[in-house]
Specification:
It is a single chain. By secondary structure, the protein is mostly helical. It has one domain. The chain is built from 13 helices and no strands. Helix 2 runs antiparallel to helix 10, helix 4 runs antiparallel to helix 8 and helix 6 packs across helix 10. It is globular, with a radius of gyration of 20 Å. The relative contact order is 0.20.
Length: about 325
């Protein structure tokens, strides 16, 4: 059963997840300088699975033994890891990071719609719809509406990133629907990444030639960061939030991703931002707040509006 209202620590974890994934596009760009997309995906998953599997053993946790659960893990390994990782890595070779951020912001919209039809406790509501659309508008404003002008430049690259965002949204809701989020989040992350890496590694050797690559020290370091922080640690947070507060709330981290992309750019690349960026940040936060307005509150506000209207008519 979902929590009626996210707690403070869950908001903190949502922001932390956005901060971690906000660095992913930056790290992917660095890794792609000397590592090809499928190889990047395969070794990112491999290193992350080793970290989380080791953590499972150290903490004395156990993997599930039933075949059906492992089938679910394998399916999410493909739809929530291999496909989106490859598609985003390939897509970033053809489109700029600003447009990629906008396309990835489709994740909350996807999760909102799919969760409405697939789950019993995450139905669509007017506050959720308004808040989600508001947050998306904030992302467009943050990145800059001019980024949308590139929509016709590389259709395949855009479709790749857009489909990756759909995969993320759908796999998150699926994990809730089939009950995987009831499992320990560390076990979930380790098992899914293990399945994904076992499938991605052979694919890398078939499609590309990893042994012939000569990655730079910077690219290898970025790959390790992607594996340990952006994948292993992020997955523990992701599956905890999915189980505690649901797919709709968790998907809102995708609105924070470009915000932290801006923060990392300021800290490490000496980038500067104008007033529009801070206005956009306010819009994004407003959207997140609106999504958390509960139905009871909304109905109460509506009833007050109706009562005030009747009083006005009587006057």
């Amino acid at each position: 059963m979902l929590s009626d209202k996210p707690q403070l620590h869950q908001y903190v974890l949502l922001v932390l997840l956005g901060a971690i994934w906000g660095s992913s596009f930056f790290l992917i760009k660095i890794t792609l300088e000397s590592v090809s997309p499928v190889t990047l995906t395969a070794f990112r998953l491999l290193f992350a699975s080793i970290v989380l599997s080791g953590l499972v053993l150290v903490l004395g946790k156990r993997f599930p033994r039933d075949l059906q659960t492992w089938r679910y893990y394998a399916l999410i390994g493909v739809t929530g890891n291999i496909l989106p990782f490859v598609l985003i890595s390939w897509g970033e070779l053809h489109i700029d990071s600003g447009l990629a951020a906008i396309l990835m912001a489709v994740v909350p919209l996807t999760a909102l719609v799919i969760a409405h039809f697939w789950t019993e406790d995450e139905k669509m509501s007017l506050p959720k719809v308004i808040g989600t659309i508001t947050g998306f508008g904030g992302v467009v404003l943050l990145v800059g509406p001019e980024a949308l002008k590139g929509l016709g430049d590389s259709v395949l690259g855009q479709l790749a990133v857009a489909f990756a965002s759909f995969c993320y949204g759908a796999s998150s809701v699926f994990a809730r629907k089939v009950g995987l989020v009831k499992q320990d989040p560390i076990v979930n992350g380790a098992a899914i990444l293990l399945c994904a890496s076992l499938m991605a590694l052979p694919m890398a050797f078939i499609v590309e030639d990893p042994m012939s690559l000569d990655p730079s020290l910077l690219s290898f370091g970025a790959l390790l960061m992607l594996s340990i922080v952006s994948t292993a640690i992020a997955y523990i947070i992701l599956y905890y939030l999915l189980g505690a507060v649901g797919a709709n709330f968790t998907a809102l981290n995708n609105y924070l991703v470009p915000v932290f992309g801006m923060v990392w750019g300021f800290l490490f690349l000496s980038e500067s931002y104008d007033t529009q960026a801070f206005v956009a940040l306010g819009v994004i936060l407003l959207g997140i707040i609106i999504t958390q307005i509960k139905g009871a509150v909304y109905k109460r506000l509506g009833s007050r509006f109706v009562m005030n209207g009747k009083r006005g008519e009587e006057a």
